[in-house]
Write a structure and sequence with these properties.
six-stranded antiparallel beta sheet, 3 helices, four-stranded antiparallel beta sheet
Length: 201
């Protein structure tokens, strides 16, 4: 039988040939050992794609991705924090996939994109990527709200510094004193974490 077309599913990286049987007048495509047949090639495509979606049933894991940009070396002082909720899933045939938070479960695989990670990827974890520190956390409503509150405090601090933090020698001195006290608080927290390593991520 001659190959007359192809069924391609980028989400699952699947390519299947479509053959035509002149004697029977049907188009044929085989997936996972199961032959699918129809007299109309478009109907056959839809049937096979539906079978692919059912075959690749994935367990989607909700996570939080934090992108923290911190300067190093010659770069000027700046800091940014971006947070995103998403779902990720793994399959041995195509690795990890990711999809945005609002995607319907039935549409996740079809609209997913590649997620760069090793097979053993798990959360919580962190890694460097193009000058940024990426942190991945297991999603919970409580954790998402905590990060949202931290982000609000950081924005409030940035607005305060931009409006009054450096406009006089007294303001600069006050800002420096605040930074030193903040550093001392972070240093104390690090010492506490060393005393109780089991509480650290």
């Amino acid at each position: 039988m001659a190959v007359v077309g192809q069924i391609e599913d980028p989400a699952t990286q699947t390519k299947l040939p479509i053959k035509f049987s002149p004697k029977r007048g049907v188009f044929i495509c085989t997936h996972a050992g199961v032959p699918y047949e129809d007299t109309q090639i478009q109907v056959l495509r839809e049937r096979v794609l539906a079978a692919l979606r059912e075959y690749y049933t994935l367990t989607w894991m909700p996570i939080i991705e934090l992108n923290m940009t911190v300067p190093s070396g010659w770069q000027r002082s700046y800091f940014s924090l971006k947070r995103e909720r998403k779902y990720i899933a793994y399959h041995e045939n195509f690795g990890w996939k990711q999809i945005h938070w609002t995607a319907a479960e039935s549409e996740r695989l079809a609209h997913s994109q590649r997620f760069q990670a090793d097979q053993e990827f798990s959360v919580p974890t962190a890694r460097e990527s193009y000058g940024s520190q990426l942190a991945y956390l297991p999603y919970s409503d409580e954790l998402w709200e905590q990060l949202e509150e931290i982000e609000k405090y950081l924005l409030l601090a940035a607005r305060k510094l931009r409006s009054t933090g450096f406009f006089s020698p007294q303001h600069v001195a006050a800002t420096l004193d605040l930074c030193r006290r903040l550093f001392d608080a972070f240093a104390t927290n690090e010492e506490d974490a060393e005393d109780y390593p089991g509480q650290d991520l």
